[in-house]
Design a protein that fits this description.
- There is one protein chain.
- The chain folds into two domains: 193 residues, Orthogonal Bundle (Fumarase C, Chain B, domain 1); 255 residues, Up-down Bundle (Fumarase C, Chain A, domain 2), CATH 1.20.200.
- The longest helix has 31 residues.
- By secondary structure, the protein is mainly α.
- The chain has 21 helices and eleven strands.
- The protein is elongated.
- The strands form five sheets. The protein has a three-stranded antiparallel sheet with strand order 4-6-7.
- A hairpin with a 4-residue loop joins β8 and β9.
- Keywords: Histidine metabolism, Lyase.
């Protein structure tokens, strides 16, 4: 894969998270890296203090380090900051972390040698993945603790995973025919500073929530037909007078999914004047979700292509400038908005499930099963959906509004971006499960309206579901059905049926 630092696409990140066997950087990149490293080397020989090169860190920035201890300074920095705790990050996230760190360092503003970048590329392409604890970062100064665990691998310290098997870092390096490195001036700091962990976690969350959102468009359309709802709320004229792009796109998708439905034609002149909001307001709610996904994707793509190190090396003037690009507030806010959007996807889907099992609203058999009483049908499956939707309300509480000063008040405002992004994983899984339960319930409802048919598009969806889950005839062990349907949502199988494109950033030519 050819990588242009500063111009990575979401599609490249998708490919890397699943593993690639080759990463290539252009020759011009290496020249820039070498020039930056030479600039740092020259600065390290001077007596004037330069943060992180010949000084301490954080509150110790005013402590100057003698030339004889500059290499020890970088080693000690990595070891003292490797204080992460908690479960290790998943392999797909670690792969994205490595790519983002490579792309940042390769832009030539960090002053590291080409050897450091080459070592990171080796780890990535041979899938020798650092074991990085998921907890311990407050999102400023960057993701220090988790990135320290990544950097420690280059020193031969810590653990790696190779083909899913954990081993000592020194053994992982041996698999690559590599020896532990000695980090030069600023190299330890450059490896630790940055938002790559929080950004990778947020992008992983973005991908999962996108799949759930697209799946929810499909199940939302299915619920409209199962409940004998109206397609009038999806009329393009209603959306056009308001003007929101997401609303317009989503309404169009519902019309395409429901086109040719015999159920829609059958109840065209029924006595109902308006449907409940969970059916009627889907373009407004899900449209807002898609607009939010687009904004978050663009923000995270900018962050993925930015340089979040500190200090930064500007070779044109030979200066090293201290700033705050390590502060992950953009990532934190994007992750917070993703969490809110995800919670709304699940909240609306749960309401549609509740509608379908209520015979007074749906006109279907109670709890979507024949012989109610001896059969409970989807009664408790809805309770599970309600439980997860309620849990998501807590998970969607903004993390970016919190801050706890660190480093003896030198770092007195932090972003909490890493937690903001990390909680997207369980949140997205909850949403996928809720949408999966709606998939089961809405398919059941449509089948209970036989012989009146749904649309051809939704018939294809139901046929795919029935490959893994049968129609609900009588009460049975239901958990495996939910698990199988959840995989269809989580793996993007259901999303593939959604006739909607999420153009993220036209200037980058990228689509979600």
């Amino acid at each position: 894969m050819q990588i242009q630092p500063g111009a990575i696409t979401l599609q490249q990140l998708r490919l890397v998270r699943d593993r690639v066997s080759e990463i290539a950087l252009s020759g011009a990149v290496w020249e820039s890296v070498d020039t930056s490293a030479a600039t740092v080397s020259a600065i390290a020989q001077r007596s004037a203090p330069a943060y992180g090169i010949n000084t301490g860190f954080g509150r110790l920035a005013n402590t100057q380090i003698p030339p004889s201890e500059l290499l020890l300074l970088q080693r000690n920095l990595v070891l003292s900051h490797a204080v992460g705790v908690g479960e290790p990050l998943p392999d797909p996230v670690v792969r994205m972390v490595l790519l983002l760190k490579i792309a940042s360092l390769a832009q030539g503003y960090s002053g590291v040698s080409s050897a450091v970048i080459e070592a990171l590329i080796d780890l990535l392409v041979h899938d020798v993945l650092p074991v990085i604890p998921s907890q311990g970062s407050v999102g400023a100064s960057g993701d220090l603790a988790p990135l320290a665990h990544l950097a420690a691998i280059l020193l031969g310290i810590g653990e790696v995973r190779v083909q899913g098997k954990a081993m000592a870092a020194i053994d992982g390096l041996a698999c690559l025919d590599r020896s532990p490195m000695i980090l030069g001036p600023k190299e330890g700091l450059a490896l630790l500073n940055g938002t790559q962990v929080s950004t990778a976690l947020a992008i992983e969350g973005l991908f999962a929530i996108e799949r759930a959102a697209l799946g929810a468009v499909v199940t939302g359309a299915m619920s409209v037909d199962a409940a004998a709802g109206s397609v009038v709320p999806f009329d393009h004229r209603i959306q056009a007078v308001r003007g929101h792009r997401g609303q317009i796109d989503v309404a169009r998708a519902y019309l395409r999914l429901l086109e040719g439905s015999g159920i829609a034609q059958w109840h065209q002149n029924c006595e109902k004047v308006q449907d409940p909001y969970s059916l009627r307001c889907q373009p407004q709610v899900m449209g807002s979700v898609f607009d939010t996904l687009r904004w978050c994707a663009q923000t995270l793509l900018v962050e993925a292509n930015g340089v979040s190190d500190n200090p930064l090396v500007f070779v044109e003037t030979g200066e090293v400038l201290s700033g705050g690009n390590f502060h992950a507030e953009p990532v934190a806010m994007a992750a917070d908005f993703l969490a809110i959007a995800a919670s709304e996807i699940g909240g609306l889907a749960e309401r549609r499930i509740a509608l379908l099992i209520d015979s007074t609203l749906s006109g279907l058999p109670p709890f979507l099963v024949k012989d109610g009483g001896v059969n409970s049908g989807f009664m408790i499956a809805h309770v599970t959906a309600a439980s997860l939707a309620s849990e998501n309300k807590s998970l969607a509480h903004p993390a970016s509004v919190d801050s706890l000063p660190t480093s003896a008040n030198q770092e007195d405002h932090v972003s909490m971006a890493t937690f903001a992004a990390r909680r997207l994983g369980p949140l997205a899984r909850n949403v996928a499960t809720i949408v999966a339960i709606e998939l089961l319930a809405s398919a059941q409802g449509i089948e209970l309206r036989a012989p009146v048919p749904t649309s051809a598009a939704l018939q294809r969806v139901i046929a795919r579901l029935r490959e893994v889950v049968p129609h609900y005839d009588v009460d049975h062990y239901l958990a495996p059905d939910i698990a199988a349907a959840t995989e269809l949502v989580a793996q993007g199988v259901l999303a593939a049926f959604a006739p909607i494109e999420l153009s993220v950033c036209p200037s980058l030519g990228e689509a979600l």
